[in-house]
Amino acid sequence: MIWRCRSFGAPSWCRVAVMSSSSASLGLGLDPGAGISAARALSPGGSLLRLSDVQGYEQHRLNDVLLLRPEAQETRTARSNNAHVVFFPGDIQNFHQEMAVQPDASPWISFSLERVALTLGVRFPGRHVWLVRPSRLHLHKFSCYVNFVSCDMFGAPQHSPDYGAWRHLRALLGHAMERAAIAEPLPPLGGALVPAPLPAGFSLILVAFSKGCVVLNQMVHELASSRTDPELMEFLECVSDMYWLDGGHPGTGDTWVTDKQALAELASSGVAVHAHVTPYEVCDPARAWVGREHRCFVKTLEQLGARITKKLHFKDEPACIANHFRVIEEF
Length: 331
Description:
Layout: H1 5-8, H2 12-26, H3 35-42, E1 47-55, E2 62-69, H4 72-77, E3 83-88, H5 96-100, H6 113-123, E4 128-132, E5 136-138, E6 142-144, E7 150-151, E8 157-158, H7 165-179, E9 203-209, H8 213-226, H9 233-237, E10 239-245, H10 260-269, E11 272-277, H11 279-282, H12 288-303, E12 308-312, H13 321-330
Parallel strand pairs: 3-4, 3-9, 9-10, 10-11, 11-12
Antiparallel strand pairs: 1-2, 2-4, 5-6, 7-8
Helix pairs in contact: 2-13, 8-10
């Protein structure tokens, strides 16, 4: 998301809107002390596990990860117990405990990582839900996904075709699965002439919100090279869907991928693309390029024959950061 002045000190009507909608849907109050215990109470069959400093592609690429395990009855009825969702959050989002003590973050605590995990658990039943915290939050607000994409101190990206976002995700998820004692974890990268096969039934859905969408964008730029990498080919083939939820960042461009060659790779991959936006991002006259890029992204993929769905949420309501957050619940 783009944290402008009106975002830091959000007006009271905005705060009431986001709090009331979240509390109603999740059944949680806004008591900062609720934390994981309240989350567990809402997910009696599943469980939340926080993993710190999970290593990814290289030793210095570390991310904290939160896992929501599916409820036991869901895995029994699901086609596979090795189905996964990975979520990349936006600015200000953090673990409940950290958000509770930050004045700028506490108004949005209904969208802490723990609570978003519960929302996604309902949205994607029977799947393991992984939330990847950015390796750095500048001023406790600005998400910087430097392990996935080159970016400045505020998280504005500089995309390239070979930064290693897919390789980092593949390694990060494999190490996180090992630490979480998942029954059939992804085999480690490297060291074998012939890569080990992935576990039977492994499938993956990628979801990103606001600033987190820079990770998906970087992955699109890397598709051409990654689809020919023997260690990544099978992993990429297991990605069924990619969700962009109201992408935004503080830069002056590249909010959405518009490069036709990169989008052609995405279209030909067969991945189902979902673009969910709100007026907060795509109808802001002060950042008109966001809407133009979004329209180019959608139109180009449609012309290329991609499997794409699109939706403008809250189109009849005033553009507000509250609705920007609510897209996490409504997509």
